[in-house]
Amino acid sequence: MSSAAARRYARQVKARRAAAAENGVTSAPALASGGGPAVAAADSASGLAARMDSLLKTGSGPESYEALQLASSVVRRYAKAGDVAAAMATGTTATMRLLSHGKIPTATQLSRELIDMMMDYHATATDETIRDVITPIHEGYVAAIAASVASSSTENDGDESAEDPDREHHISFLRDAVRWTDKLGTFRHGDPRVHAHLSSASFDAGRWQDGVTHGVYAEDPKFIAARLQSDPELNPPGGGNAGDQPRDVALTAAILMFLALENARDASACLRAFLEADRRDTKKLTAAFLTSKSSPNYVTFCCSLVRICETDNSGWFNWITSGSQCGRKLVEQNKGLQPYLTKIGKVYFGVQPPPSMLSMMENMMGMMGGMGGMGAGF
Predict the structure, then answer these.
(1) Are residues 247 and 98 in the same domain?
(2) Sign of the four-CA dihedral 81, 83, 87, 93
(3) Of 170, 186, 202, which closes a domain?
(4) How remote is the C-alpha of 289 from its chain's centroid?
(5) CA atoms of 367 and 90, how far apart (whole Å)
(6) Which band of pLDDT confidence, cut at 50, 70 and 90, is reported for residue 134?
């Protein structure tokens, strides 16, 4: 690879090290980047793992950072020598070693350096790299967080709040991985398998908007429906039988995203799976949609919209979004719906939006693929 890429990668590593120092992660002296006995002994995967285990078993901060420096040095050496495959394999092994010792923040430093290297040296996001690099690290995070949750729950009488920063580290890594697959993979907006990992991690962290967004890009409608029906935040006790429960709002976000991305098949599948798991009387929900003057009925709105998109009747689309009293109220109370409805109107019914709205709509859809988030309108 070019010397410019190597210099760019070195600058990124330096910046991440500076950030780590500010957060109190480091106090150990740096290892020589050019090699030395420690690096030479770690040139094989087994040698690196053994050396890191020796450093990490003490459990102190300086040794944790020294293990990070050791692994990063070996990854850089392979990358600069042109052996990007070995650099990826080494970085993956080292990251998982850190995670197995519960060093989640340090593992995140290394995993993000690994993604930077893969971006700068144009490592293609293939089935093999996702299988051998991204998925094992993702699973390492899951195991490390589970261990942290168990430990936190034991020490704090069931309080699991200490796990939240760990989940953010996990999400941070997966977001970088989505960007990598978006730039150097074959899927627009990023690889569905990585989006699936990020969707699961987001739901686990209590971030349903991101969970829905990445679940849609993962093209996994049944997973979304199951999480919406089981998520404690979206199913508060005593929620009642109306069609405006938190899970119904989340369902609407998912259905509109699927439709806006021209994926009517998965929109329909998500809705069916949601309704199959729901115990409310759909006939009563439909009646409430037509008669209620107060609460929007999201479930019936979604059912009607999916069915209308199977036709070419723009009149029905205009009625459901602005003509019916309940539909109009629903849109007014959720301004974030409008860009998606604008895209749906254009795609399915040829309704041309104003140029300003079209530009905003396309920018929003592009941003969601790599960064996540439904926005503040929901």
Answers:
(1) no
(2) negative
(3) 186
(4) 33
(5) 31
(6) very high
